[in-house]
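ping. complex inputs:
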Amino acid sequence: MKFKAMTAVAALLLSVPAMTLADPDEDSLVINGELEVVTETAAPAHLSDALDTIYSGWRFREDETQALQADDFDNPGMVFADLGLDQWNKVEGEAGKSCASCHGTPEESMKGVRAVYPKWNETAGEVRTLAMQINGCRTENMKAEPYKYTSGEMTNMEALISVQSRGMPVDVAIDGPVQATWEAGKEMYYTRFGQLELSCANCHEDNYGNMIRADHLSQGQINGFPTYRLKNAKLNQVHDRFKGCIRDTRGHTFDPGSPEFVALELYVASRGNGLSVEGPSVRN
Amino acid sequence: MDFTRRDTLALGMGAVALTVLPFRANAAADDAIAAFTGGAAMADTGVTLTAPEIAENGNTVPIAVEAEGAVAIMVLAAGNPTPGVATFTFGELAGAHSASTRIRLAGTQDVIAIAQMADGSFAKASSNVKVTIGGCGG
Amino acid sequence: MAEGVKPRVKAPSKAAAGEAVVLKTLISHQMESGQRKNADGTPIPRSIINRFTCEFNGKSVIDIKMEPAISTNPYFEFEAVIPEAGDLKFTWYDDDGSVYEDVKSVAIG
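pong. complex structure:
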């Protein structure tokens, strides 16, 4: 350990808040010994003036946490995909159907789906997140009660569907009918919120790789959602995380499912275009 | 200047503005050890405890224990409100006498593993795990 | 049986006679430690899985006494020796009296 150099620098450090540089590590993720996951790639064109390279949040975690994603039986999020499969096969609603009735097995019908959400729904005339589409199917086709947006049942279903796109590149459209929503999401990303007046970009674009107290800041990519957080030992959705982040700026936050978060999710997803879908991932 | 958290911690825990939860120790851990060993002496080799130096999150900390030829291994968290974590008893069809699990740690503390060997002797290993407060928990 | 409690076990479908195999087990369970408090300050009572066992053809592989410090969604990785074809039986015992089970068959080959 380079003590002499560090003690000299320590005097300097004492006078400034403890910001230490700890870039994303060099590890690579292969799941179950066979599925290669892209955790680093060139930033998409629309980000060219902000970032050169985009990294999955996986690259910013400790080795022990990263190891939890390498095997589907180490990954605690996968048991929730199993529960999602039980729900998939369960008949619910007045139409007497389960998801399986129309969609067969998730492997057959859901491949590639997660990778392109949020996306435009022509019939509904709106941008839909995966959760909105799941509830759309439940209410319109199954004539069943919608899942509560951030419920365990919704998250289990998102996990099941995400697994079917694992390893595939995130590829959300940003033009055409979604453009206005995308622009709104982009504006929100760079807007400062709360008493602390922090925008998403302040941490996740300007300071990724740095430490905020004892947390290693990532780029805030959402390719790994829904994510199993060690902190609450359960799967978490994107909108829940957005809500937590804004609450941490000591600001009044938006609700999961709100148009603001739908727009933000579309924009943030597009910042990860090219990274592999990783969900359900494991984070801290 | 390439600082990792480990380097910064080594510089001086109190000096740098890190939020590391205070070190916790618990007399109940000693009672639990005495109950398990009957007060017998413990060798300092024979059981391996693997735990991270810094826990990414105290709610879910991966650990592993191994003791060749052990009948049982008891794991304690000396700084938790109650120190008991788990006791692994190996049956006749156990492969390697080892086990991995994930545990909760309330703060920076020693995690202790005590192995009871087939000949009735005991071995002890301990590992200090630092538990930090995240920056932006959400 | 509590809602949403589901085991997830990784075990090989076959092994050589006498081979030691790695087993991974997880079960979705809150493991309410008894340390948390409600919004009004009253403690939430402890409700955990307190014991996990694995047996092969009725013989013990491992027996784990579990305390509240085991994380939510308890996970264990350990090894079993497979002397002959048979069944691995995994059992979790809940404070509330529920017992959860999973069985994996192992062939010799």
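The helical segments of chain B are 5-11, 27-37.
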